[in-house]
Fold each of these.
Amino acid sequence: MTSEKKDYSWLGSAASLFAVMTCYGTLAAAALLPIVGISVEIDEGLMIKLISGLLILALAGMAYSYRMHRHPGPLLLSIASAALLLWVFYGSYSKPLELTGFVTLVVASVWDFRVKKRVCACNK
């Protein structure tokens, strides 16, 4: 029986992107569905809880990825992004801050991917 270590370093990036898609994809669908005659009501509280859970999952994935490559930048940026988004959701809502939080979360994911790729290339 072989002991293979599974690589979950993709989890942070995937959860980050899924959080962005959940927020803006749902809003886009709710805005477009009335065009075809379908009315949808979105439970904002449920959306905020879902996105908050995805942010926590993204941070856990980024922390796991950090353990692999030891480059703190993507993890620190994703922590700052998640903190900003949680403040926007549970503190004082601001559309520009929400956009800033999601954009920096995507930037952290891309940065993390590039760091992993560079570290993987160096290890070969």
Amino acid sequence: MENTAQGMTRKQILACVFAVVLAVLLAALLVAGALSANADDNLGDVPEEYADLPTTILIGADSTGKDSAGQFFGELIAERVSDITGGKLTIDYHANGDLGGDADLLRQVQYDDIQLVVCQTAPVVSFVPEMAVFDLPMAFATADGDTIDAVLNGENAFSESLQEAYGAAGLHLLGFLQNATFRLTTSNKELRTLEDFQHLQIRTMENSNHMAFWQAIGAEPTPLAWSELYISLQNGTVDAEENAADSILGASFQEVQAYLADTNHILYCNQVCMNEDAWEGLAPAYQDALQQAVAEAIAEMRPQMTAIDAESKEALVAGGMEIIDYDESFFADVLALPSVQELYATIDEQTGGLGTVLQDELGK
């Protein structure tokens, strides 16, 4: 009798365990079913044109500095496209180099490992050679933001040619963010006239066209690691450097540089592009939503670009720098130099005549 009682007890225990496990499994299935049934409810209000489309996630990234215009631009695009589609199309956005540097990100976009990248124009040249058109020195220097925006983001011969060039690289261009703010020159030498640039030891990006420009006006460009620049300016290893105003302020160069010259030699501009196949794979409604999100982000960010530039300059002046402004005759004198004209011809040839197309469109 004792063995039978023990056997019944074990059976009862096993039955209870089975019942509990079965109950847990049933509960899990019910929860999963409820979540699946209400998946669209979690998206919020989904506009009718997206209701029957599959929920889609794109991966986007940048390698810009923290709190830079490029970061805000990419994050705003992600926010807007989610709002427009009610969360049916979203961008999993990674800022500040989380997924790699500019070249790494562009390569990942080409391979469709990620779908979207925000970066300045210079790194794109290695992938889209025609983007060297943005290396034309002072090409945008006297144009206003609206004019530049109409050429870069409007429908015209320049933007169409550039879109074709992106396509040849397996990319799709979505738009450019700028508002007639530029890379400027800081120096401990007073750069009032073109002659003042003679033999100026200036640190530049390691870009052959950029370096050729400074050589063309008589300066002596020197590529130098960013981490070494502050101390090099402080001890006089180099006399000058060039950057956007917010970058100059962020690096505290007002502590070691006396002058901020508005040379406006390169447009401060961020582009956003995505993998061509990924773009083509999106439903037309999603394509429209993404393009709308980019347009809205550009419209919101452009005034901020101007404000950031102005506030940065004010802070640099408060920190002890003196701003040097130039009239149009200065830029005309630079562009009239035979050495600069030769550089224009070289870049125009590099870009298959796109430099001429750009100048024609800006002239309109």
Amino acid sequence: MKRIKAIALALTLLCALSGGALALYGMPPREAAGFAAEAAVLRQGSTGSEVRTVQTKLKRWGYYSGAVDGIYGSQTKKAVIYFQKKNGLAADGIVGKNTYAALGMMNEAGGSSSGNAAGTNGYTSSEVYLLARCIYGEARGECYEGQVAVGAVVLNRVKSPSFPNTVSGVIYQKGAFTAVDDGQINLTPNQTAINAAKDAMNGWDPTYGCLYYYNPVTATSQWIFSRETVTTIGKHVFAV
């Protein structure tokens, strides 16, 4: 009898470990998969290096003023909600897949490959797509060269010590791009915008190193008019 009970216990443990019938604490496989997916997000109470990365990005962009300590407390949650509201995301204070993407952290969320996108000069596929979203949101009505030029400005800022040093950091810097402020950054880019992003990443810079652009008809900042004009492409003036 003892031997039969031992065998039964061993079989039960094997089944649980294999995930055949019970994946996590007696959950059916589908519920267990949902639990695992939920565990991949960050929320109040989370800790670790990913939380620290979120805090660093939000602090750099002006959404967060607390300590970068890797502890997802109430102040971090408040900053995440602020960021989500500004970027047209569900403002739940939870860093899930969409918020990971907006933060430029798709690799951490398991949403994209960490490998380089083919033919894009070392940039990742998520960076290509994010730049395409920015181009589409900012300049989809412009000629192709004008769309590449907007992408080039983003990349010129990445290289400049005066701006964040990542594509996502530049795009989501507080107040930097109208498309982020009004939510158009979340529109799905067309193939033209994707091609323009790739061309910019491969080195085409129609702006000759510009860090700024504006539409002189709609611009309201007097400061932007003080920048030195380098070229005009379509409706945009590009300046340094």
